[in-house]
Each structure stands twice: as C-alpha cells, then as structure tokens.
Amino acid sequence: MKFTEEHEWLRVEDDVVVVGITEHAAEQLGDVVFVDLPEEGTTVSKDDEIVVIESVKAASDILAPVDGEIVEVNEALTDNPALVNEDAQGEAWFFKMKVDDLSALDDLMDEAAYKDFIA
Amino acid sequence: MAVFRAAGTVPALTGDEGDGRMSELKRTGLYDLHVELGARMVPFAGYEMPVQYPLGVMKEHLHCRAAAGLFDVSHMGQVILRARSGVPADAATALETLVPVDVLGLKEGRQRYGLFTNDAGGIEDDLMIADRGDHLFLVVNAACKEADIAHLRAHLSDICEIEEITDRALLALQGPAAEAVLDGLVPGAAAMRFMDVAVMPSDFGTLWISRSGYTGEDGYEISVENARAVAFARALLAHEVVQPIGLGARDSLRLEAGLCLYGNDIDTTTSPVEAALTWAIQKVRRPGGAREGGFPGADRILPELSQGTTRLRVGLRPEGRAPMRAGTVLYALHEGGAPIGEVTSGAFGPSIGGPMSMGYVASGHAEPGTTIYGEVRGKRLPATVTAMPFRPSTYKR
C-alpha cells in the first residue's frame, strides 16, 4: 500500500489502483455523513477534486492522486458514509482508477514513511 | 485529501475562531476533567473548550437524545441584577428598558428567554432571565458577556447592582434520563417543570437549578460553586447513562431543536421579527400593551410585528444527504435569478438522519413546503422550507 501527503492510500490490484483515505484522516474528519463520488468513466488529472466528503465537522475533498480514468466507485459509501469511520483502509475504498503510468506511484510514501509523516 | 476545507462550519467545530493562541485562552474549572475524559480541546469564545470526547460527535448527539448528556457551559456569563431600592420590581422594570420582554410579569421561580436589542432593532445577545424573588438571575452568551455586562452597567447602574458571578461553574444535564439522575442527587429536582428555577441545597453546596437547556431535550442547567464543580460533575458521570458531550454535538442538538446560535443565526443586524423570535415579545410590550415599547429599536421592531419583514429565518431540509452549511447562498429557481437568502447554520442531524439548515430567505419564500435551492459546490440543490424544530422537543411543561 502507498500513501500520499493528502492522506490517501493507494493499493494496486491487477491493472487498477484502489484509492481510499487513511484511518488517520478518517479520525481527524470525525463522523462522515455524506460522500459524493465521481462518475465511472471520468478521466481525471492529478490533483483534480474528484470526491467530496462531508463529516459532522466540515467538507473535505479527495484529489486525484495520479492521472487516469475512474473505472469503478464504491456505491456502498453513498448509502452508508459511516463505513469510512469503521473501515477506512479496507471496505471503505472510494474508487478504482486505471492509471496511465503506474510508475507515478513510485514517488509515494510507503507505510513506514507515512507513519513518520503523521507522527 | 484536503482535510478541513472549511465549508462555513461553526467556528466551534474547526477551532479557528478568535485570534488567541491556546495559551492565551481561559479555562473553566472543569478543564482538567475534560482532558482526563479524553476531550479534544478547541478555542471557543475565548475559552479552551471540549469539542468532542472519544465517543465522537454523532454518538454523543444520539446518546444525549437516548439517555443523558453532561455539558460544561461554564464559559457562559452568570449575572445577578438586584434593585438598589430593595424593591425587586424595580430591577425588572429597569431590565425591561433593554429587552422587549415581559420581565415584570415573570413569576418568582420562573425563567424566560430574552433578547438584548440595539437602537437599530438588531440583537446584541440572547439570554435567559430568571426571577429569583429578591433579584433577577441572567445567563448570557460567552462571546458577548463582557459587552452585555458593560451594557447593563451603562444603563442600569443607577437602579441596580450588577454582579457578575465568577466563582460558579455552569453545567447542563440534558436528555430523557436527566430527571432521574439529578433527582437522585438533588431530591426535588424532578418536581420542577420546564423553565422553573430553584435554589437547592445539596452535597455539592447550594445549586442554582433551572429546568431548561439548549438541546430540545428535557433537562437542567445547574450553577455550582467552582470548588465543588468537579465533584458534582463526577457524581453525575458516575451514572452509566450520563456521558460528557462536547460543543460539536451541542451544535447539532440545538440545530435539530431549531434554536438559534448567537453570531450565526441572529446578530446585531437581524431583528427579532426577522429572526422569527416574536414569541419572545410578550403582548404587554407590543402595540396596545400596558408597557408597549420602551426598549432599544422599538421603533423598528414594533411596526415589523404588524407589517412583517422582507426576510425571515426559516428551517430547511435539503434533499439527499449533503449538508448545506452556513454561507450557502439560496435561490428561488434551479437556474438563474438573484439570490433570495443565505444559510446561517447547517449540519447533518443525527436524530433526523439527514441534513438540516436554518437561514434567512425573502419573505415570499418562507412558507413551509416551499422548494428553494442552495448552491453547494457550484450546483443548485433543492431544499424544502420546513417548520422548526426539525425534531419535536421533549420539554416537561
């Protein structure tokens, strides 16, 4: 699993990348009450705002971590946004991307580096 | 993820209010207890206050509605007004020059909601006024308390002694289990009705109790000597049904109850009529009443009572799950047209299971059932004007 400074995690599954937010981010956000997911098939560029998360505290965005195409979104989050608080790094993935260049992930942090980053 | 892109949330929730660093902030007598209970502390109205405990905002909210919640509201101002003449009615008459409220008609042992108005007919603060026999007891907002006390001193000093109470904490115990818990510690508390006030002896010194609150629940606000406050709070928390509740859930609880937050939903520019708080202006202070007018801004507020206003505070239920937060601009139409108003408070209501907002709209759009649109992230989303409270209140009248 790879991590961004924006508190996203990325996991490579075959030829797609699964993206979610970290447990640390979910804890900081507090109870998530609304998730607005992108359309499947959307082409995105790195740093595009593609997901809106509303918690009891505030609205936050997920930015596209790399260039690519959204191939699947986790509809379960629309009905049950609280899943983000229950299982941020498991069941509560947000979207799957087909990534133009998988080597773009090489620059991201591994788990140890991310733990240092949030320490 | 861009965490905490502030979207017009209540400052209490993001902790970004004020210019003070934490080190310059005041603490209530319960600060150490909050920290011990695992609270996340944030700056609020010049104090370091608990925004949430480990339970989290959502569960704290639901717990308060299901059992009982304990709130530290010691940052609020407690003030005693006592007539220098020794005639209690003189203090009531004097206070009536600052509020559009029937204070003289308030019976001993009773409390009512009031507003300090200004010369322009706006609201300087909202407060509770209690008649305690030989004096009046006021509870005012934390952020306004210095200004309120200066205002009282400037206008009422000739007639009243004005005493700020600084040696007492203020706790709120709210929720369906509050009555049984408090009555166990302070026998007689259960006999009080909504908006009753009483001074009662207890193992924690003399308590000043009112049956009221800011959640829409039955419950109490209890003033206790600072020296006894922690012991009293611990005695309440010793009951399994009582959980500590932070400012985050306090905000969603009061919003579900349709109650205004001073500074958000009412301020120096909103009149009580625009704010739909006309119920707080009793008949005796209205045109034709025995003590008509005689408060700041009466020349604006009294005509508004009969003529209406161009804008009104309303409740809104957005469709879907996306909250419309404070600052959201409101429109009559899905596309085009000028704005008709703005949201002043908005959040997700845990007990109603959806988003809720309050705000001001042009009066022609204020009828419950009207569909209007709030612009959220560039999209106009529908919301229905809704009577408040969003959730029926459960006061013990």
From TrEMBL, chain A:
Q: List each copy of the Lipoyl-binding domain by range.
A: 16-98
Does the keyword Cytoplasm feature in the UniProt annotation? no
- Provide a GO biological process annotation: protein lipoylation
What protein am I looking at?
Answer: Glycine cleavage system H protein
- RNA-binding: present as a keyword of the record? no
Give the N6-lipoyllysine positions (modified residues): K57
**Gene3D superfamilies recorded:** 2.40.50.100
Q: Which family does it belong to?
A: Belongs to the GcvH family.
The highest taxon in the source lineage is Bacteria
The cofactors named for this UniProt entry are: (R)-lipoate
Q: What does this protein do?
A: The glycine cleavage system catalyzes the degradation of glycine. The H protein shuttles the methylamine group of glycine from the P protein to the T protein.
- Cofactor: how and how many bound: Binds 1 lipoyl cofactor covalently.
Q: State the organism named in the record.
A: Actibacterium naphthalenivorans
Identify the NCBIfam families for this entry: gcvH, PRK01202.1
PANTHER family noted in UniProt = GLYCINE CLEAVAGE SYSTEM H PROTEIN (PTHR11715), GLYCINE CLEAVAGE SYSTEM H PROTEIN-RELATED (PTHR11715:SF3)
Keywords of the record, alphabetical order, are: Lipoyl
Gene Ontology cellular component list: cytosol; glycine cleavage complex
How it assembles, according to the record, is: The glycine cleavage system is composed of four proteins: P, T, L and H.
